[in-house]
Task: structure prediction
Amino acid sequence: MKKFETEAIRTQIERSQNLEHSSPIYMTSSFVFEDAEDMRASFAEEKERNIYSRYSNPNSSELIEKVCQMEGAESGFAYASGMAAVFSTLAALLNAGDHIISSKSIFGSTHSLFTQFFPKWNIETSYFDASDLSQIEGLIKPNTKILYAETPTNPGVDVLDLAVLGQIAKARGLIFIVDNCFATPYLQQPIKFGADLVIHSGTKLMDGQGRVLAGITVGNGDLMDKVYRFSRITGPALSPFNAWVLSRSLETLAVRVDRHCENALKLAVYLEGHKKIEWVKYPFLKSHPNHEIAKKQMKAGGCVVAFEVKGGLEAGREFFNGVQLLSLSANLGDSRSIVTHPASTTHSKLTTEERNAVGISDGMVRVSVGLEHIDDIISDIEQALG
Ligand SMILES: *Cc1c(COP(=O)(O)O)cnc(C)c1O
Result:
C-alpha cells in the first residue's frame, strides 16, 4: 500500500478501452448480463459484479475503496447524505429493545434521530458527557449494543479519547461507532483506536467545496455486510455523479485539509488574544481542555473554531450582521469560510437545557475556516467585532 496522498489520487476504476486518464462517470441505473447463466450467477452472488446502482456502481465502489484505504477499513457503503449513512448503519444493526450509549455532543440531526424516532421502535439512548468518559460504565445495560461518539464534536469542538472509548467497547462487547466527519481520515483514523465502524458526512471537508451531499460508512467486514444487506434493500445509495465528484475531491483532501488547519490555528490564536472574546476553543490550542488527547489522536486540529463574543446574544447578533466576506451558512468544511450561530440553526431543535448540557451557549459562534487567505479571514472578523 502506498502513502495516503498517493492512494487518494491513484485508486481508480480500471480504464476502459478509451484509456481515459480520469475516471469516467457511470450514469447508469443497471448493468447488462451476458447470458442466462451470467444472470443467474450474478443474482446468486457467485461473482462480484455490478447489477443495479442501488446495490453498487463503479463510481461509488471507487469512492468506497479510497475511504477504506484511508481509514484502514475492510469494506463500506456510500450514501446519499451523511444522515442516510447514520440512519442506515444504526437501523441495520439494531433490533427493537436495544440500547445505545452516546456522547451528548453529537450532530443535531443524529440527536433528533435518537430522541424523536428510535423510541418509536423501542430503541433507547443514554448519554454521557464528552468531558467525562467515566460515566459510560454506569450506563451499560444488558441490552446495550452500540457505543456512539463524535470527535471533535459539533459545534463545541470537544475532543473525546478514542483509545479509552475503544477499550470500554471491547471489554464490554459493544459495537463502537465513530462519526469522523470533523477530522476526516486524513487527520484521524478511529479504527486504529478500536472503532468498529466509521461514519462520514462527505458533504463537509471530504467534498470541501460545498457541492454535493454524501455519506459513507466503512469498517469491519462482518458488520458492514449486515449494513450492506440493509442498505441495498432500503435504497439510500449515493448517485454515481455525486460519487464521482466526491472521489475527485478526495484527490486534494490532504493539501486542502492541511491549509484549513493552518488557517484555523492562526485564527484561533488571533481570537485568543482579542479583548472582545470571552473564550475560544480549538483542539490544537494549548488552552483546549483535551489538547494532549487531540495531539495524540489527530494530525492537526481541523477547520472548526468555536468562540463566544463578550456581551452574549446581542453582541453575537451584531457580529453576525457585521461579517462581510465570511458566509452566514449552516454548512462547514467548505473552501469558503462560514460563520454559524448553532443555537438558532443546527441545534435549534434542542431545548435551551439540552443545548447548555452539550456546551452550546446562546452567544456561541462556530467558524468553519476556509481556504481564503488568512489575512482576509482575520480582517473580516476583526471589523465585524468592531
Ligand atoms: C453534517 C454532519 C452530519 C450529517 O451529514 P449530511 O451530509 O448533512 O446528512 C453528520 N455528522 C456530522 C458531525 C456532521 O457535521
Summary: The two ends are 52 Å apart (CA to CA). Residues 253-385 form a domain with the Aspartate Aminotransferase, domain 1 fold (CATH 3.90.1150.10). Residues 253-272 form the longest helix (20 residues).
